[in-house]
Specification:
Helices cover about 30% and strands about 30% of the residues. It contains 14 helices and 14 strands. The strands form two sheets. Strands 5, 6, 7, 8, 9, 10, 11, 12, 13 and 14 form a ten-stranded mixed beta sheet that branches. The two termini are about 50 Å apart.
Length: about 400
């Protein structure tokens, strides 16, 4: 019988079954139980009852002795839930939060003993002691602090260590999303040894400082090379570790970041953790503008052959990134190419391409590792001397 079916049956009716009454008595033979722990043995039966209420009904039905002074299973843990409230409140001092969840480091002795009793009553009918304790402490903390419980996305987890008798914190990161424009060349997206600054530091440092965090991480929807500007707004998430503050003035922070004159931030706001996964799953097309230097003059007729770049291209991992990426052959699609001749040996290209297309190699050919390329269709060596991301097409 499934849990939903048990829920529809009153505990009094279930206890009329001699086999189940015998099972409960056998579980009690291992040691006397408080009403909390006795009720948990059949927690899946009936609705509208707390575990202590259910335990009292079971005790009456099987004519069991009254609750012991000290439960042989929980050792009085459930009777002492109130004592954990001030420990939890003290642990939260100095941390700003709106939501919390209670979790626990279980006492292995209690878990082992309750597993023995489940062999008689059935683990499918029981509620683990840790789950019941977390719920009770959570209710009392709501009443004591006015904070809201959130089991999926809490600001902070309160970890009750039952063996040690103390409460510690697992502080969840603070996440904020937005879009950045990289307005200058010469620095990477993420912190990188040997570089004095990065987009991560320009954005993350002030956010981390205001949140009084320990450190920060940066997640971008793709990235551009150090010598490439991103004039189209690229989505990102900044993750602040162990923040003491969470209510930040996001508009003021964005304005502060913009004073760097290297990075502009748009739509900065708090978000949830799952925004990182969503961001990493995006594969938007991008439009680039490239200044191309040719080894020989090209006339207008030759430039018309650039239309041949539209369509599928084959790209072997570029030589310049082979040290950090596997050597693979990929198929990518170029959706549009426009060009303007600045002088006989200089072109300005605008290319819209599939995510993951190496634009510099689309121009140079990378010694034949990208085909076709500007070098191949023009019949002369071509080099990208400047590159900008003009747009990131999210829709």
């Amino acid at each position: 019988m499934g849990e939903r079916a048990w829920r529809k049956i009153r505990i009094e009716d279930v206890l009329c079954r001699p086999d189940l009454r015998t099972r409960v008595r056998n579980a009690l033979a291992l040691g006397p139980l408080c009403d909390h722990c006795l009720g948990r043995l059949l927690a899946a039966v009936g609705t509208g009852l707390s575990n202590p209420q259910r335990g009292r009904l079971i005790r009456q039905a099987i004519e069991a002795p009254p609750p012991p002074e000290t439960c042989s299973l929980c050792g009085g843990l459930f009777d002492a839930v109130e004592e954990w409230v001030p420990r939890a409140v003290q642990a939260l001092e100095g941390w700003e939060l709106a939501t919390f969840a209670v979790t626990a480091h279980a006492d292995p002795q209690i878990e082992a003993q309750e597993a023995q009793r489940w062999q008689h009553t059935g683990a499918d009918l029981a509620e683990p002691y840790k789950q019941a304790f977390n719920r009770l402490l959570g209710i009392r903390l709501c009443n004591a602090t006015g904070l809201e419980p959130d089991l999926e996305h809490p600001d902070i987890y309160l970890v009750a260590d039952h063996a040690a008798g103390q409460v510690t914190l697992r502080v969840e990161p603070l996440f904020a999303h937005g879009r950045y424009r990289k307005l200058a060349r010469g620095f990477p997206q993420c912190r990188w040894r040997g570089w004095p600054t990065s987009i991560q530091q320009i954005i993350g440092d002030p956010v981390c400082r205001e949140a009084r965090g320990q450190d920060h991480a940066f997640h971008g929807c793709g990235r551009e090379d150090t010598d490439v500007r991103c004039l189209g707004a690229r989505p990102f998430v900044v993750e602040v570790l162990r923040p003491r503050r969470r209510s930040l003035d996001w508009a003021a922070l964005a304005q502060d970041i913009g004073r760097s004159e290297k990075v502009e931030v748009l739509d900065l706001a708090r978000c949830r953790r799952d925004e990182v996964a969503r961001l990493k799953g995006l594969r938007p097309e991008k439009t680039y503008r490239a200044t191309v230097r040719l080894a020989a003059d090209a006339d207008a007729a030759a430039c018309e052959r650039l239309a041949g770049l539209v369509g599928e291209i084959a790209q072997q991992t570029p030589n310049r990134v082979l040290k950090r990426r596997p050597d693979l052959r990929r198929r990518r699609r170029v959706h549009a190419v426009q060009w303007r001749q600045l002088d006989p040996r200089t072109l300005e290209l605008e290319v819209r391409a599939q995510a993951g297309t190496y634009i510099k190699e689309l121009i140079s050919g990378d010694g034949g590792r990208t085909r076709p390329s500007v070098t191949e269709v023009l019949g002369t060596a071509a080099l990208c001397v400047e590159l900008d991301v003009l747009a990131i097409h999210l829709h």
